[in-house]
Amino acid sequence: MIDKSAKELIEEIDKKSINAKEVINFYKQRIDKHNSLINAFINTTIIDGDGVPIGIKDNICTEGVETTCASKILKGFIPPYDATVVKLLKEADFTIMGKTNLDEFAMGSSTENSSFFITKNPWNLDYVPGGSSGGSAAAVAARLVPWALGSDTGGSIRQPAAFCGVTGLKPTYGLVSRFGLVAFGSSLDQIGPITITAYDAALLLEIIASYDKNDSTSIPGNRRKYTQALNGDIKGLKIGIPKEYFIEGIEKDVKERVLEAIELLKSLGATVENISLPHTEYAVPVYYLVATAEASSNLSRFDGVQYGLRIEKENLIAMYKETRRAGFGSEVKRRIMLGTYALSSGYYDAYYLKAQKVRSLIKQDFLESFKKVDVIITPTSPTVAFKIGEKVDDPLSMYLSDIFTISVNLAGIPAISIPCGFDKNNLPVGLQIIGPALSEEIILKVADIYQRNTNWHRMIPKTFLDG
């Protein structure tokens, strides 16, 4: 069962070769045995269903089950409602196996910022799994669940998917409801699937993508059958290769694996064109102004009054200060301070407003490129996974881990990361496929055809091969 994708498990259940309870028990036993090795799950409270098991990132609300965002300030918070995506999963009879670990409030690129414990990379336990959806990516890589949900604000699905050798899809902004997702950067956040295969990502997207009146940014329209696009070929498909993503500093093995993947796609009928996304160099500073400003606003609600941690003090202001001091971790405090500064009187025009203007230029770069090409292919990250502790005292170096993923969120377009090989130390390399808004069918098709002709996505870390 360990070698089967979610699609294959569903087919086996439908044929009655196995039953759903056997599948659920199998993954429960794997979580019981292996989770302590990698700390993928914060809690393993099972929400019963008769469908294929799934993990949920712990910044997505689940009625009656603790949702912490991996923060002390929300320890003990039990949501009275389900996020829309959880509601849709329950309606489809999924079995939720528990809540996965993350960087606190999804702020980080390594899952080292969790207030509870560090998640480890299943390919090498001395390395990070990426972040912020590191728990979900590690759980799928170790086959503790066949698929999981993550959230992506600046690469938080795709970068950990790349580091852990699994498939991660960041949908078009507004395609999947954010209702019940604890907000970090409201104009950037998007829920999406982390899976073994591109087909599984398409299957899960069919379930969670729908219009939601509870989300003012939700895109109206009917659900689409993304799996129906996964047939045929890619003859004549135009692939753009942006020069800004093959820069000095990219690891040699990463560059080689990505170029090999592009050559394979060319052999399958695609054509390749060199393109430029000239404002890419500004993506990181723009993102960290926009995202921190929005985080400053969103996290102001955590004050000890209505829910979560409360430190009793002699007056209200003292209670606010002490609750936040004790409840928020250092990275969250850093980003709140950066965002508050950028929004403050006298600095709003100089920083936040200017960042939004440059954001428009980054989006325009993509719009111009997609007039010439169908998809854009890049490395997901300039490096493979790094060692635990290696960048924890160097925030700027950590922020640069997302340099190839951030622009997609700023532009609101979809992208998928799929495994395309390993480096010399047997750590996975990720290939990113980017498309224009609402082009999920196209990027999923390219990813699926690549996976039909390779076996990287089927690889399982040796430590977790049993069963």
Can you give the helix content as a percent range?
Answer: 25-40%
The helix count comes to 14
Strand order of the largest sheet: 1-3-2-4-6-5-10-11-9-7-8
Structural class: alpha/beta
The overall pLDDT, averaged over residues, is 96
Shape: globular
Structural notes for this entry:
The protein is α/β, with parallel strands linked by helices. The chain is 35% helix and 12% strand. The chain has 14 helices and eleven strands. The protein has an eleven-stranded mixed β-sheet with strand order 1-3-2-4-6-5-10-11-9-7-8, with helices on both faces. Helix 3 links the parallel strand 2 and strand 3. Helix 8 crosses helix 11. The protein is globular, with a radius of gyration of 21 Å. The mean pLDDT is 96.
List keywords for this structure.
35% helix; 14 helices; globular
Brief digest:
By secondary structure, the chain is an alpha/beta fold. It has helices spanning 6-14, 20-38, 84-91, 134-141, 158-164, 198-208, 252-267, 283-298, 316-327, 330-343, 349-369, 395-399, 406-411, 440-452, and strands spanning 41-43, 53-57, 95-100, 147-151, 167-170, 191-195, 238-242, 271-275, 375-379, 415-422, 428-434.
